[in-house]
Amino acid sequence: MRSTRRSSLPARRGAADPADAAPVVAGAPSTARAVVRARATRADIRARAGGGPVVTDRSATPVTRAATVSDAPAMLEVIRAAFGARPPVDPPAAALGETVESLRTTVLPAAEGGQGQHGILVEIEGEPAGTLLLSFEGDAARIARVAVHPRFQRQGIAGAMVVEAIRAAARAGAATLELVARVEFDHVVRFWRRRGFEEVARSGPNLTLRRALPVVVQIADADAMHRLGARLARVAGGGDLLIASGDLGAGKTTLSQGIGAGLGVVEAVISPTFVLSRVHAATDPEALARGIRRLVHVDAYRLGSADELWDLDLVDTMADSLTVIEWGEGLAEELSDQVLQVLIERPTGAEGRTVWLEAGATPTARQRWSRQVLTGVVESL
């Protein structure tokens, strides 16, 4: 086993939340992975629609909840204000044709004669701020009516709501999430592309955008987390990069220990708390046949930038290694085009862990870590 001494670096500060860069025409609830933060705006700027000043109070916390039939008037208020503030288009946005009754029917459970769509409502100090509709057909999910009231725009609500929609759809077992965007609104299309959506169809001014969804697995205990690591190791190949994220004590090192077991690592795999990286030789014949000669285990907790991670020269050994980087989210994605993101969460008030498995953004990563591969890993636990 080889290790690299950790330099005396300050604790890593959180990276800027991508939700802060959301455009002014989408909506968003707060989640564990998308913390809503207000952005500074001029108090004298008036909202383009809906009246009142743009809200600038950073202390106001968005409250996200499932919408019910009784929320239809609030949802309609947000939709009309948000879509009405857009430049006119031809044909007009279908969202402007919504009514209280149509929204009630949309969110009314199917057992009661409605469409049974999942509605999300975001409120700030009791005022409706954002809304979104999520529907399912087979293994596909669709989002629509994504809207933030103009008074609450530029507070990250849009990006966080998209994260919540992705998570809700993944929890429900959907394989893909799609939406329709207008080609005239280039900044909106860019917003969706930054979140992994790609164009799959075009009809007149409408673009259909789609992205794959994470595979979700519930892990009961440390033994199950160890098994998950071993299963991932047995489908990995040389050049693969696993980025493990989660709070302190979530189970990242336990996952890494399972990966080591799956590769036939002989010595103990321990957290590189006081070193930058540890290198362990792989001995499993199948791992060696798949091009993995070693496990490179990295702890990026105290690194402050991607440049500091690049200074470790991980790319020099990556081709014939399986590299696992704890705390690498937002830093390590550019090191390889064969990335698997592994997010480990501890649900509040619940035992066990929720693990989200998602291929990186490159075509190579999506092929290497396809949904078929990841569901096979999960089903074998």
From TrEMBL:
One of its GO terms (cellular component) is cytoplasm. Its main location: cytoplasm. It holds the Pfam family Acetyltransf_1. Keywords: ATP-binding, Cytoplasm, Magnesium, Metal-binding, Nucleotide-binding, Transferase, tRNA processing. The keyword Secreted does not apply. Residues 10-28 have a biased composition (Low complexity). It is found in: Cytoplasm. Residues 1-28 are annotated as: Disordered. The keyword Cytoplasm applies. GO terms for biological process: tRNA threonylcarbamoyladenosine modification. InterPro entries: Acyl_CoA_acyltransferase (IPR016181), GNAT_dom (IPR000182), P-loop_NTPase (IPR027417), T6A_TsaE (IPR003442). This is tRNA threonylcarbamoyladenosine biosynthesis protein TsaE. It comes from Parenemella sanctibonifatiensis. The lineage of its organism: Bacteria, Bacillati, Actinomycetota, Actinomycetes, Propionibacteriales.
